[in-house]
Amino acid sequence: MTATRTTSRMRGTSTATRSDGPPAMVVVAHGSRDPRALRTVRALLDRVRELRPALPVHLGHIELNEPLLPDTLAALGGTRAVLVPLLLSRGHHVKRDIPEMAAAAPARTRVAAPLGPHPLLVDALYDRLVEAARPAHGPRPGAVVLAAAGSRDPESRADTGRTARLLAERLGVPVVPAYASAAAPTVPEAVRSLAARGHRHIAVASCFTAPGRFATECAAAAPWIASAPLGTHPAMARLLLHRYDEALGAMVTTAPVLATA
Predict the structure, then answer these.
(1) For the whole prediction, is pTM greater than 0.70?
(2) What is the DSSP letter of 68?
(3) Is 30 considered catalytic here?
(4) Which one is catalytic: 30, 58, 93, 233?
(5) Are the CB atoms for 167 and 144 separated by under 8 Å?
(6) What is the pLDDT of residues 135-175, one digit of tens each?
(7) Domains along the sequence of the chain with CATH
(8) How far is the C-alpha of 212 from the C-alpha of 229, rounded, in Å?
(9) Is there a contact between 34 and 229 (Cβ–Cβ < 8 Å)?
(10) Which helix (H) or strand (E) holds 43?
């Protein structure tokens, strides 16, 4: 997937000729009323900093938690930044909210692609399922429901479906995407459908970046095991850096875009 180009005041000399250090990474989280979510996101950013100590890493939220993304961008002033959504598919936040906040900020920005679909995301999903199954000492899952937040945007559902297919290839069992809101089927509906087709040991794979209401509700619908949210899995930190690098490459090779009034 390619990075999304914005029109956020990219002026002056080309970034290819600047030598004042790398553009900042701004990880854009959704925000949650669950305090575990903010702790998890901060710990994930610490992993990113460990992997790339020279990279300035900042956090901004779309809603519900501080710092909010506009405040983070305002604090950066006119510096360069790559915004990496801590979101697992395309949708309204990635396609509208984040670019609009970026365009209104003084920072010269580029918005990276969301984290999914990608093989690194599948690595994290697979490992979380293995972790969940290990204490049960039971068989491998006979089928899996991939539980995601959900969106009315068809591209978001397409991305989740692609992630489900990649996970199915990795596991060798059926994987059905399902949603906590705004799309069908729901997780309980997907579980019932798989059970009606004769599948046993149905697991729920939590396609969520951090604990929260949706992750908790979807896990409660699991008839056998449910994996933990992706959280601070090492593949998630590598995936954030991969999306940053993708967007940075486009930022360097593309001529500056002058914002219009």
Answers:
(1) yes
(2) B
(3) yes
(4) 30
(5) yes
(6) 755 678 999 999 999 999 999 999 999 999 999 999 999 99
(7) 15-115+233-253 (3.40.50.1400), 119-226 (3.40.50.1400)
(8) 9
(9) no
(10) helix 35-51
